[in-house]
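B., you asked whether I could sanity-check this one before it goes into the benchmark set. Here's the sequence:
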Amino acid sequence: MVLDFFPENVLIDILSYLNVRELVRNSRVCRRWKQLVKDQRLWRAVDLSTWKGLTSRVLWVLLRQYLGHGLRCLRLRGLLLSVRRGAFLTESWLQALRSKCPRLRRLSLQFTDLRGLRSCSLLPSSLQVLELRSCEVSPGFFSQDPETDGKAAASAVAIETLVVDSVPSFSDQHLSSLCTWQQLSRLELRDLSRVSVGGLMKCVPPGAQTLARLTHLELDTWRLAQMVALGLGKGWPGLETLSLGGNEVNPGLLSVSRLQDLRWLRLRACRLNKETVLRCCRSLKQLRRLEFVEVEFVEDEEDVRPDAAQGRDEDPVPELRRTLRSLLPDCCVCFSSCRLTVNRD
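And here's what the prediction gave me:
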């Protein structure tokens, strides 16, 4: 076989283009290929989210035979949408993952039922990024493990970035539990119907149990005016990056003007008018980057200048860009996939 004469590094590079299922199949070719497939350079970023029919049994096989100290990123798709359902991530498998993959930094779970896990402390302690998309969690999932003492519990969760996207059971109680996470600096909340204005405001510093270490916050909701309009009303000391999206961004922008430490503001998938944007940005003197992504700018017909009506897609409101440049000379303003709608009523 011609490939037998290739150097090992070349074969590893070739195998790196295969997905997990193809790697497993190729491990059955011969003994040499079996050893090559087990090379940890091939198992640094493992994406199992596209593997249909993935079960807990397959997870055990992968963990015992292939996953190891080289694993950095793991993506899984659970069985919430499967007719088979059943257990997927068990406590014993997570304990084995923690022991065998001590360098795992990123865990992304999709359609995974986590209600059988008593606490997030069961997750690998090396995790820095946790992503939950369309998952289900228990009421105390984000709390520290009650069986550990206070000092151990404080160091059990070292997660710096948490993404919660379309998790129906995520509520104010879960949000409050995040205040005990000592390393959490980036929080992304998207499409959550059970998080209220009051629940978010309880987490705003100063206070004993707040998200005081948070520097990046992303809020995106299409359902309620729960977070954007009132949640930031008193300001958020230390918050440097903010991303807002959804139907309620425009009425909530004025509260953003109280975030004096803000350096990066991103507004996406929303409807805005020029006057509200300018009123918001006048007091954001520390702002260094302002992004508009998929934003629909709505202006009355009498307020639209001819050059704006003929503006390019990447710069639908040239007058707004010029005004922002003079208002925030040290700020980079970017428009991406935006459009201008003229209100003729």
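One thing to flag: Residues 148-155 have pLDDT under 50 and may be disordered. Otherwise nothing jumped out at me.
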